[in-house]
Structures are given as structure tokens and as C-alpha cells.
Amino acid sequence: MAGGQSRTPCLPACVHVVDDDTQVRTALARLLAAHGYEVQPHATAADFLAAHDARQPGCILLDLALPDLDGLALQERLAAQGSALPIVFLTGQADVQACANAFRSGAVDFLTKPVDEDSLVAAIDKALAREAALRVRHEDQERMRVQLASLTPRERQVLAFVARGKLNKQIAGELGTTEKTVKVHRARGLQKMGVRAVAHLVRNLERSGLGHALAAAGDP
């Protein structure tokens, strides 16, 4: 990874089990712990919101029917807060409309009680993998925003043209300068972006979703 930065989170991934049934909550927590997951049980949505550290990676195993905020309401609140924590729903009754609403809002899975152990583990693994991918993307975006901010206006212009496949000679003509000057700005810009080749720059911009931030600099 460019810049040698580590993506290892400072906190371990955690599965938050939110269920108001003490026996079910305890059984799920023990089962998941036996599979090697770090688990935090919560009796209500309010308990979860009070205890959750947004910096901690993980996912939520969420009961649909809760005494305060129900599962769908908690999902909605987390979305409004900008949380990307993936949710696996767990319910005692199959509810087609609730299931559809949950998936429409980004749920990873919708399981019914009593839950099959293999299905539960598979859903949790999928949720944690999704969260890890989202976290990496977010870290990439933050790193690239810092790198883009470090560019001078001319370096941004040159890299924008470079990313479009323009040659140094063409860029010099567009900017009314010399090829030598373009080469200097190009080299400095690539260094600040933590890459050696234009292909790597383009790939990183596309992966982070920030290609537009650089492309705008080269607009006439």
C-alpha cells in the first residue's frame, strides 16, 4: 500500500448482539464467542447506542422486535448518523415487508429464530467482510483527500491532464508552458500522491471514488 500506512484497526472487530430476550442473547453470544468472535451483548437498541464506539469495526446481529427502538428504527437511525456498521437481522417471525425494508436499507441478511448455526456464522462473516471493505475504502478516501490537498494548483492541473491520457507536449500546449515544466509538476505530483506510475494514480482514484476531485482541475 502506498505510503506504507497500516490499515490495522486499533480496536478488534466486534459482533454486537442486540436482543431483549436474555436467554437468546446469552446463547447467541456464547455461540459466536465459541467461533472466535469478540461479542458485546445488548438488551436494547438504547443500550447499544450508549455503549458502541464508532471507531470500532464490526457488525450488528439485531433482533427485529425490541422494546424501545425496534430493529428497523435502529437501522434507520444509524444510517442517519452516517454509520456503515453492517446489520444482520434476526427475528422470531417471518415478516416479508420488514425483510424487504431491511434489505432495501442495506441489511446483509435476514435470519429467523431458531437460527441455523452455519447460516448465522456465514452471515456474520459476510457482514464483517463488508465492513472491512468499507473501512478500507474510507481510509483510502481520507488518505487521498490529504494527498490531493497537498498538491499545488498547477500540479493538480497537470495530473488531471495526465490522468486523461494527455502527453506532456499536449499538456504544455494546454497550459501555455514548456514540456520540462510539465515534467517537473508531473513528477512532484505523482510523488505527493504516493505513486510512481500514472496507471497507479488512476486506479487509486477510481477505487477511492475521488476521480472527480482531480478531474475538475483539468476542466477548461
UniProtKB/TrEMBL annotation:
Swiss-Prot/TrEMBL keywords: DNA-binding, Phosphoprotein, Transcription, Transcription regulation
Statement: the UniProt record of this protein carries the keyword DNA-binding: yes
Residues of the HTH luxR-type domain: 144-209
Biological process annotations from GO: phosphorelay signal transduction system; regulation of DNA-templated transcription
PROSITE patterns on file: HTH_LUXR_2, RESPONSE_REGULATORY
Record PTM 4-aspartylphosphate, positions in chain: D63
SMART domains to which the protein is assigned, alphabetical: HTH_LUXR, REC
Database matches in InterPro entries: CheY-like_superfamily, Sig_transdc_resp-reg_receiver, Tscrpt_reg_LuxR_C, WH-like_DNA-bd_sf
Superkingdom of origin: Bacteria
Domain (Response regulatory): residue spans on this chain: 14-128
GO terms of molecular function: DNA binding
Protein name: Response regulator transcription factor
